């Protein structure tokens, strides 16, 4: 993983100067910098160039063979730290599908990257004529939401499914079918007692939070 991070260090400036800058000059010369097609194409530069560039360390067979379902998040963190802190979750999306339908992961990472940047393009274009003040607030709200969504997705990849009911109310024991299950969100709460439905037998009953021994 240290090798992964080291290999990713020069990739961002290289892809910017060797790919994006020449591509931008070529498109501006042929389409015109004021054209709508050019502006929309420009919004795709970052995801379509940076996401594949982050995956170049996978060309080394040792790194590619070592990435597994239980450690791909750590590799995403290594590449993200090397490439640009804050973008590691995009790499996690790509590596998530490394062993099965890898192209879906790469497209997903690029799409999420574009989705994060696109409101900034809307502000630059003053879309809808809504004014700089509106778009400044809108972009800030969007980036805040986007940040927390990114953290949530990265946590989901790293730690697996985390049920909100289990987080808030713990696990429960069904008095009828004796199944153990995560407490549901929707129930009648009376302190430590809850009237809820067992997801296994589908029956409603009163339960209490288990007392720790």
Please give a handful of descriptors for the protein shown.
5 strands; 9% strand; 61% helix; 2 domains; 213 residues; two-stranded antiparallel sheet; single chain; flat; three-stranded antiparallel beta sheet; mainly alpha
Give structural notes.
This protein has two domains: 2-161, no CATH class; 165-208, no CATH class. It has helices at 2-8, 11-31, 36-42, 45-54, 61-66, 72-83, 88-96, 102-125, 132-159, 164-169; strands at 171-173, 180-182, 188-190, 193-197, 204-208. It has 213 residues and is mostly helical. The radius of gyration is 23 Å and the shape is flat. A hairpin with a 6-residue loop joins strand 1 and strand 2 (180-182). A three-stranded antiparallel sheet has the order 3-4-5, with no helix packed on it. The chain has a two-stranded antiparallel sheet with strand order 1-2.
Largest sheet: 3 strands, antiparallel
Proportion in helices: 55-70%
Order of helices and strands: HHHHHHHHHHEEEEE
- Decide which structural class fits the backbone: mainly alpha
Strand content: 5-15%
Radius of gyration from the alpha-carbon trace, in angstroms:
23 Å
Poorly predicted runs: none
Overall 3D form? flat
Q: Please give the order of strands in the largest beta sheet.
A: 3-4-5
Average predicted confidence as pLDDT: 80
Distance between the termini: 41 Å
| Strand runs, count | 5
Number of domains: 2
The total of helices stands at 10
